Amino acid sequence: MAGALAGILLTLGVILFVEGMRKRPPRPKKVKVASAARDTRWDRLPRRTKQLVIVGFVGGLVLALLTGWVIAIVVFPLAVVGLPWLLSSDDANARIDRLEAMEEWTRSLAGVLTVGVGLEQAIVATVRSAPKAIQPEVNLLAARLRARWPTQDALRAFADDLDDTTGDLLAANLLLGAQRRGAGLASVLESVAMSVAQDVRSRRMVEADRAKPRATARWVTIITLAVLAFFFVFTDFMDPYRTPVGQVILALLLSGYVGVLVWMKQMAKGKKLPRFIGNEVAQEALR
């Protein structure tokens, strides 16, 4: 009975892991707002992550009570939540999607400016057509302009909301256009959009190369989990690890494997380019 239930729990863990690996459309980046003092790290977690943590903890607890594998209380929820994140590429894809959204919005803004309206009116006019990836930032920029913020302050805050070097480039050109009020801003924005499009193409090529070793690591991990589940349920291969010392050794081995995955994810992430405009940059320069 215990062996059958342990097998069911292990199978459930593998299913949850595979479910977590499924690619989903990235959520738009939320604009930074001051969080309430009572909010904890648990409160800020997405609902799906909370569900996976609860299911993983309950599964690990039941497995520990039935089999004596105390390590399952920690390993089970960490594996269900952590491995899909370590082996996914959603962060890189989300950054590229935001760049594409900046390019699309810049072209849209340039098209509105050719009609002859002012910069502030053109920004407000593009709110409804703003791409979903940067829609919160564009909405907030338009709201600040409607609230009679100085245009330069609103654009610097917009750069902080985007929090990206490309966003700084876009905001810097908008700042120059707001200061000079010339007729050539539309053509400048078209040039910026072309530059962003080239950046997107090169980043997609880099991400395609990075996806190959990530896919290899993903399949190796899935196969390893399946083999360990088979050994645990149907053989006595894992018996030496049932003792307290054996479980400590197993925890060290698993930690080493996870450490390699973390190292691989950090290598694939790349170094973030420094920003050069915005209120946050100005405050850091005064320190």
TrEMBL record:
Please classify the protein's predominant subcellular localization into one broad category. membrane
Topology in the lipid bilayer:
Multi-pass membrane protein
Does the keyword section mention Cell membrane?
A: yes
One GO term of the cellular component aspect? plasma membrane
| Record-annotated Type II secretion system protein GspF domain positions | 105-231
Q: Can you tell which superkingdom this protein's organism belongs to?
A: Bacteria
Cellular localisation: Cell membrane
**What keywords were assigned to this record?**
Cell membrane, Membrane, Transmembrane, Transmembrane helix
InterPro entries xref list? T2SS_GspF_dom
Tagged with keyword Zinc-finger:
no
Where does the sequence pass through the membrane? 6-22, 52-85, 105-127, 219-238, 244-264
User: What Pfam families would the database entry show?
Assistant: T2SSF
Record's protein name: Flp pilus assembly protein TadB
Its source organism is Janibacter alkaliphilus
